[in-house]
Amino acid sequence: SIAPCFLAVDAPAAFKKAKGKKILVSNTVSRKGETHGLTIAKFAAEVEKYMGSALDHVLYHDEPIDSDLIAGYAQKNEMVCEPLPVEADLDKNKFVGADILKKGEFAYDSKKVLKEIFKLAKNR
Length: 124
Fold this sequence. Notes:
This protein is 35% helix and 15% strand. By secondary structure, it is an alpha/beta fold. It has a 3-stranded parallel β-sheet with strand order 1-3-5, sandwiched between helices. The protein is globular, with a radius of gyration of 15 Å.
């Protein structure tokens, strides 16, 4: 579902020319017909393919997720499969794990995400 964002005319050229850091906030779970079978690194590679350029950083949730939260989310959204696996040998300069989910909810905490993005933009 993210691919159409990159299909606009000249989008890959614009990403190549962009001087700002390119940071992807990765999906946390896979979806049937979209990201099922992908890992964090493979998902990022797919995004890079459609962007036509490399990402500077990939931010992903790295804390265990309560199975009840995933089950509840999957009941509301039948496309949900499972958490995206994280490879053990990821480049830690590019792939940054952090606790970015809301407490007790299966949703990103915007304050946590922004805090991590500002750290990436400033320090790395």
